[in-house]
Amino acid sequence: MHNFDFAKPSTIADAAKALGADGAQALSGGQTLIPTMKQRLAAPGVLVSLTGIKEMQGVCMGDGGLHVGAATPHAVVAKEAVAHYPALAALAGGIGDPAVRSRGTIGGSIANNDPAACYPSAVLASGATVVTNKRKIAADDYFQGLFTTALEEGEFITEVVFPIPQKAAYVKFNQPASRFALTGVFVAKFANGVRVGVTGAGNDGVFRWKEAEAALSANFSASAISGLTVDAGGMNTDLHGSAAYRANLVKVLTGRAVTAAG
């Protein structure tokens, strides 16, 4: 690991100022960044920790739904969101292991946008709003490909606002060593329709399965998607599973999520 300076601001304004320095990098849970730095694949000159900012921590109901501070660890989301959004709490409680859940944060996960991370599917399926130090970004505009988001230089997530659906569930097929999603599906039913977020499967990262959304909006049952197929051409292939295998998983897990939600 290369040498670096460390800053831990206590306000969003101070964090924005610190991140304006040359070579500055935001640090949240550090579950991806720190290992990357240890391998010398990243060498920020300054790490700016966001975990000391109180206004970026915690879970509460407010305008627009459930507000989750970006610096809130997965374990806290699992505990505090359960009364308001059980499917989101269950997702958070299934991430990694206890050590990861105690350090990793929702903001760090969404900012990194790992193609196999769990939270992006919930953000996309919920139609959540990603709030930054500069603006509000709709979920459909936020995720832009593998490890790519709409965040600009010096911009960082402060909170995520989740509308509360009528019914929802998340089901994932774990990669057993990492507990990342080989494929994961989050289904959320709202009064105006159903949204389906898929992680771990697509070549371009998290995506919505819109054909399933249309079918489930008309009939919210697993049988509604029985005649649908997922194009394997857009699926990822690696040593853990082929594109065809992942395409099948998307359909199977969507049906399971609908059953669990219903």
Q: What does this entry show, briefly?
A:
With 262 residues, the chain is of the alpha+beta class. It has 10 helices and 14 strands.
Which properties best describe this structure?
5-stranded antiparallel β-sheet, single chain, 10 helices, Uridine Diphospho-n-acetylenolpyruvylglucosamine Reductase, domain 2, Enolase-like, domain 1, alpha+beta, 262 residues, Uridine Diphospho-n-acetylenolpyruvylglucosamine Reductase, domain 3
Helix content: 25-40%
In CATH's first tier, which class of the largest domain applies? Answer: Alpha Beta
User: What Rg is obtained from the alpha carbons, in whole angstroms?
Assistant: 18 Å
Shape: globular
CATH arch. level architecture of the largest domain: 2-Layer Sandwich
CATH topology of the largest domain: Uridine Diphospho-n-acetylenolpyruvylglucosamine Reductase, domain 3
Q: Which stretches are poorly predicted, pLDDT < 50 over at least 5 residues?
A: none
DSSP strand content: 15-25%
> Which sheet architecture does the biggest sheet show?
5 strands, antiparallel
- How many strand units? 14
Structural class, by secondary structure, is: alpha+beta
Number of domains: 3
